[in-house]
Amino acid sequence: MDDSILVVNCGSSSLKLALFDHDHQKITSALAERLNQSDAFARINGDETPVHLPSGASHSQALAALVNAFKDRALMTGEPMAVGHRVVHGGETFREASLIDDQTVSAIEACAALAPLHNPVNLAGIRAMQALFPNVPQVAVFDTAYHQTLPERAYRYALPERCYSDWGVRRYGFHGTSHYFMAQQAARLLEKTPATTSIISAHLGNGCSITAIQNGLSVDTSMGLTPLEGLVMGTRSGDVDPGLFDYLASRGMSANDVHEMLNKESGLQGLSGQTNDMRTLCELADHGHEPSQLAIDVFCFRLARYIGAMTASLTKLDALVFTGGIGENSARIRQDTARHLRLLGIELDPDLNQHHGRWSDGRISSPDSCYPALVIPTNEELVIAREAARLAVAGAEHSEG
Description:
Blueprint: E1 5-10, E2 15-20, E3 26-33, E4 41-44, H1 59-72, E5 82-87, E6 98-99, H2 102-110, H3 119-132, E7 138-142, H4 152-155, H5 161-167, H6 176-189, E8 199-204, E9 208-214, E10 217-221, H7 243-250, H8 255-264, H9 267-272, H10 278-286, H11 290-310, E11 319-323, H12 324-329, H13 331-338, H14 350-354, E12 373-375, H15 380-400
Helix pairs in contact: 1-3, 10-11, 11-13
């Protein structure tokens, strides 16, 4: 056994695998896509030689192939000290990361109805790595766990009590690992402790969510029972009138049709009629494509509206933080969003906003801004690696004790 840590993130038809050393520095990463399809493929980051996968490769076959490729390229010299798994939904069972045992697996299975597209494939990754490394501690890190500090007024829907007590219908929130990382990093950049730092964290990528963090704890967030609620996203609608379902049903759409439309055909993709890629939308808008400009306008307005709403859950605000692929890389989206926040007194410095990477503190706000605005790159894999190592060590010490 060496002192490396593997991090596994399984999606419905893809997976990401990352390898960290004992100092939590990333050694390498890999990606497999189009799993369970005839053209499944895999590659290691920075290596032009593809990793061979059989036609229709499953998650377990892809993981085995990538682990062998790491070994063949001398990136791994033995078994890792721990394997960390991203698990999307932990329900109300998990408030923090957990060592995986039979009880943990059963609890993840019990949450599958809340995340039918994610938890089953997360479990497939867990079982595959248990088969490859039966003596290595496996750790589950949950997207929902960080949001288990939400007060009841923030997580309950105005529905009959039985919906919550019998079926677990409530707001859970997602992207918790990223928002937790933002809380830690923002505190460091602001020269404060996490326990005294309050921020609004905007995770903006193909999936988008925003979280109000009071003194290091999540107290409100935009995603709900599922990742569909909240902001406009790449292909997800975000908030819609619940009456839409009856209306579309009266037009002949089935529940599955509506589900597919809201999750895979809406958001930036639906508004623009072109793409869910923000960079392409900005280019199209610059060339006069009005639907693309509309998609950008709706995205930024809805984001700004949620930023304003999140202040209701805070007693102070130390910073507004942008992260995720769009949040980190699109100066245009940050600026267009800030234009809607004049009443909050948030003003961006145009030069800092455009070139924030040149400044180590990530600050993009002007000196006249009432609140600092920061850009902080997220690193969910690092959080998972740290949690996996921590619990593996704690588990070993407990066994010895």
